[in-house]
User: Fold this.
Amino acid sequence: MPPWLQWTLIASGLLAIALLLLFIIRQLKVLQGERAQRNKHQAFQVRRRQEIVESLRVLALAIEENQVEYSEACLRIKGLLDLVAPELLEQSPFEIFAQVHEQLRHMPTHQAREDTDKRFIRKLDRERFAIETQYAEAIRTAACALRQHSF
Assistant:
């Protein structure tokens, strides 16, 4: 084999090795970026879950100290539990939050409430207060259990 052919094959081999090395380095960087993104997303999910659990505990404490209307707290707690532990809504004593939510979900909130006739709102408020009174003890018990629950 002539020497120029040997040198050409050696150069071609080195070029192929260099190109493969560049490809491998690029792929490693892509994988590292994906791994970093996944870790960032997981950290965000953990932080979000912790914030939701803290919100649940604050709402439960607000119920225990009568700082919030029970109906509003039940609606908020049910929504938050749907995000972190929906199975609790089927367990005693936490199912009261789902029950109250179910009885109140037809009532308008936010802008819809402001746009509704005042007399109709007063009627709905009487209905809401009756539900709060009917379930007050169960709501307080569930709030206490929720505050003590380990998520």
Q: What stands out?
A: The CA atoms of residues 56 and 131 lie 21 Å apart. The chain has a mean pLDDT of 94.
